[in-house]
Amino acid sequence: MSVIECHGLGRSFGKVAAVDSVSFAMEEGAFLAFLGPNGAGKSTLLNMLTTLIVPTRGEARVAGADIRREPERVRAAIGVVFQDPALDDRLTAREVLRFHAALYRLPRREVEGAVDRAIDWAQLSSAADRPVRTFSGGMKRRLELARALMHGPRLLILDEPTLGLDPQGRRDLWDRIAELRGEGMSVLMTTHIVKEAEECGRVGVIEAGRLVAMGTPAELAIRTLGRATASLEEAFLHLTGRDLRDTEASPRDRIVAFRKRGGELTG
Fold first, then answer.
1. What CA dihedral angle connects 116, 122, 128 and 130, to 10 degrees?
2. Which of 26, 72, 110, 177 could potentially form a cystine with 4 if both were Cys, beta carbons 3.0 to 4.6 Å apart?
3. Which one, of 35, 39, 49, 44, lies nearest residue 11 by Cα?
4. 2-260 CATH fold
5. d(Cα 140, Cα 144) in Å, to the nearest integer?
6. CA dihedral defined by 121, 122, 125, 131, rounded to 10 degrees?
């Protein structure tokens, strides 16, 4: 059974196609990574799948719900950890989690228990009543992950989840993902780090907004370079090139800047 079905999905910003006709399916319980250079369109693709951006063309279903017509059903079925911290740092960890519980309409009688379990899982008991602005990057990431899981989603979506983490924080994050995978959680993530993609069951290589290859790391190496001894990094460089990338601000960054100037967006 597919947790994501995507057909010809695309998004343009003016004349620029940030995502161009992407099609793929992700099975329930799978661990899929989208691997691509900075500016390749990975975050824009996730923003469409999480209903933050309306596609220009194509269609997709997430957990059986249409991302255009049923955005509330999609959001109820997913947990998301964004690339940049998305926490109100004036709140305490406990307040952040209570607010999330209210957004997802957890029954009032269950909220405190759910908050306590999330805090314990994130190993934040001693810091639960401190403002988030006092947290380290690793603590914020654990809180975001715990928040994303509070409502029992079918699919966990992670956009560059190790960004800004030290080696200990990265290892802890991977251990937690492995624990969730062991419990059957479906996980979709983006990364530009080949070593991280190697830990995933399947990898989709994104280049200039297009999905140029998909398979297991071993399949990609053999299919791209024709030899079993090839590495995923070699395959990735073969598919995306070796030139240095001096990318402009991402479409997401341009949207944020546009809104700050008082602009309005339409689908």
1. -160
2. 26
3. 44
4. Rossmann fold (3.40.50)
5. 6
6. -150
What is the amino acid identity at position 118? A
Contacts 24+ apart (CB under 8 A), 60-66: 60/4, 60/5, 60/6, 60/7, 60/9, 61/2, 61/4, 61/5, 62/3, 62/4, 62/155, 63/3, 63/154, 63/155
pLDDT digits (tens, 9 = 90+) for 210-233: 999 999 999 998 888 888 788 899
3-state secondary structure of 153: coil
The 3-state secondary structure of 217-247, one letter per residue: HHHHHHHHHCCCCCCHHHHHHHHHCCCCCCC
Question: Tokens 């341009």 sit at which residue?
Answer: 254
Give the separation between CA 82 and CA 21, rounded to whole angstroms. Answer: 23
Please name the amino acid found at residue 250. S
The token pair that represents 22 in the structure block: 């992407």
What pLDDT band is residue 199 in, cutting at 50, 70 and 90?
confident
C-alpha–C-alpha distance, residues 59 and 45, integer Å: 12
Q: What are phi and psi of 76, to 5 degrees?
A: -70, -25
Write the pLDDT tens digit of every residue in 5-45.
999 999 999 989 999 999 999 999 999 999 998 889 999 99
Q: Count of CB atoms within 10 A of residue 73's CB?
A: 17
Q: Distance (Å, rounded) from C-alpha 156 to C-alpha 136?
A: 23
Listed in sequence order, the residues at least 6 apart from 79 whose beta carbon sits closer than 8 Å to its beta carbon are 147, 148, 149, 150, 151, 153, 155, 156, 157
Q: What whole-number distance in Å separates Cα of residue 75 and Cα of residue 17? A: 25
